[in-house]
Amino acid sequence: MTAPPVPLPPPASVDATLELLASQDYVADRRLATAVFLAQKLGRPLFLEGEAGVGKTEIAKVLAAAQRRRLVRLQCYEGLDTSSAVYEWNYPRQMIEIRLAEAGGHVVRDELAHDIFTTRFLLKRPILEALAPPDGVAPVLLIDELDRADEPFEAYLLEVLAEYQVTIPELGPIRAVHPPAVVITSNRTREIHDAIKRRCLYHWVDFPDAARELEIVRRKCPRAPESLARELVAFTQKLRTMDLFKAPGVAETLDWAEALVALDRFALDPATVADTIGVLLKYQDDVGAITPEVAARIVAEVKQASSGG
User: Fold this and answer.
1) How far apart are CA 240 and CA 126, in angstroms?
2) Are 230 and 195 contacting, i.e. CB atoms less than 8 angstroms apart?
3) In this structure, which topology does domain 14-84+125-204 adopt according to CATH?
4) Model's pTM, two decimal places?
């Protein structure tokens, strides 16, 4: 049986954090690397806010992979509660235990109630699993898209983020021996309460500039010809200056690069843009705004800029 990999310690500096992220092909700017470094150095949750598709969730995945730690992900949604996020009692097993005790004829209610509310009947959900991992190794806990959850769930998280513990009425508080690295993301579809943010280090993940986005495309889509990579990045950057309902994120840039490579394209042209714009833009109003004339104009501007004209 193969032994699990030994987790690596947190990076010792901001430069080491940049190198750690780059080792997983995550191209971060120094401000983001500083936030990641400080969150790990100080043992604080990291709260990442920004538009969808800019790489917030990827940070948690990269940290887990680079440090050889397990990733525990809690995907938030409306109606999320403690039974799905933290813990739940295994009621079928508890009922079987009660029936067996009754069949044996030795039922002492107080003792039985105590026996069925022990950890062997406890079903761990992501948060409790991260606080009390079975292997004892602190994982990376990703609480993804917290803005999709309801405000009462935010209130529940306050104990988790401040003390790295949860309180179960039947068992009392369960506190992490080795606290997980916590990454919280939000697409800002609603405001998160200040009480959550006060317990975290905060960073706004913005769209990358052209140079960094080009480097991301080079790393994530190495099959894309250099000329195509430059043009599609410049085109995407132009779109982000327009009044669109949803500007394309880095994830859409990478999807578009893969699509253009699959179509054996070596450069942009208006017809190709028209055929593939649905890979880059996800709303009909935005797609409709990129008329053939607009696409041709942007492609011409991109080619002129890339030629140095």
Assistant:
1) 36
2) no
3) Rossmann fold (3.40.50)
4) 0.89
